[in-house]
Write a structure and sequence with these properties.
The complex is a heterodimer of chains A (111) and B (112). Chain A is mainly β. In chain A, 0% of the residues lie in helices and 51% in strands. In chain A, the strands form 2 sheets. In chain A, strands 2, 4, 5, 6, 9, 10 and 11 form a 7-stranded mixed β-sheet that branches. A 4-stranded antiparallel β-sheet of chain A has the order 1-3-8-7, with no helix packed on it. Chain B has one domain: Immunoglobulin-like (Sandwich). Chain B is 0% helix and 56% strand. In chain B, the strands form 2 sheets. In chain B, strands 2, 4, 5, 9, 10 and 11 form a 6-stranded mixed β-sheet that branches. A 5-stranded antiparallel β-sheet of chain B has the order 1-3-8-7-6, with no helix packed on it. The chains are: A mainly beta (111), B mainly beta (112).
């Protein structure tokens, strides 16, 4: 079975631009979560979606938004990029309230 | 606010030795996870611990949970070079709606 997939793998943007990151969960998983991992730190929770509804939100500004589609894939949007948004963005999928399995991540660099 | 603290943050050890990584957390948890991350890679799930006294083992790694002390340990037995990685503990609360709260990670280097 395919694991969690994310696209793109790498992305370079400039300050003020907008970015969209995409995630496809493991087949049968209805929950998708997004995390930001800054170099040298543990991942930080951004959003959780289950059955297309937002179930949880971390301490991130409103520039960050997400949605989940009927096929349970998800996208994370970040507006007005700042240098500090440079990070590895990880998507995780799970059956509700079971182990989260992480995708390979999208490396975002903001110049 | 839930806080998760790992120690040590950096550990260099020789092959064949034993060592323990500690993970303390500040509030009641639903479950505790251990993940492994290789440089430039994503997170690999190692263990999930659900209840007080839970112990799980896989190869040279053994994880345990003491919910009363709010402490989990990851014990490495007779370390081998392939276990070099960064290890994270993560705590899940509130039915999972707040996601996982991770520690800062323990960067483990095992030297021949």
């Amino acid at each position: 079975d395919a694991g969690v997939t994310q696209s793109p793998t790498h992305l370079i943007k400039t300050r003020g631009q907008h970015v969209t990151l995409r995630c496809s969960p493991i087949s049968g998983h209805k929950s998708v979560s997004w995390y930001q991992q800054v170099l040298g730190q543990g991942p930080q929770f951004i959003f959780q979606y289950y059955e297309k509804e937002e179930r949880g939100r971390g301490n991130f500004p409103d520039r960050f938004s997400a949605r989940q589609f009927p096929n349970y894939s998800s996208e994370l949007n970040v507006n007005a990029l700042l240098l500090g948004d440079s990070a590895l963005y990880l998507c995780a999928s799970s059956s509700w309230y079971l182990t989260q399995y992480f995708g390979p991540g999208t490396r975002l660099t903001v110049l | 606010e839930l806080k998760v603290e790992q120690n040590p943050l950096f550990l260099s050890m020789q092959e064949g030795k034993n060592y323990t990584i500690y993970c303390n957390y500040s509030t009641t948890s639903d479950r505790l996870y251990w993940y492994r991350q290789d440089p430039g890679k994503s997170l690999e799930s190692l263990f999930v611990l659900l209840s007080n006294g839970a112990v799980k083992q896989e190869g040279r790694l053994m994880a345990s949970l003491d919910t009363k002390a709010r402490l989990s340990t990851l014990h490495i037995t007779a370390a081998v070079h392939d276990l070099s990685a960064t290890y994270f503990c993560a705590v899940e609360t509130t039915g999972g709606a707040d996601g996982l709260t991770f520690g800062k990670g323990t960067h483990l280097i095992i030297q021949p």
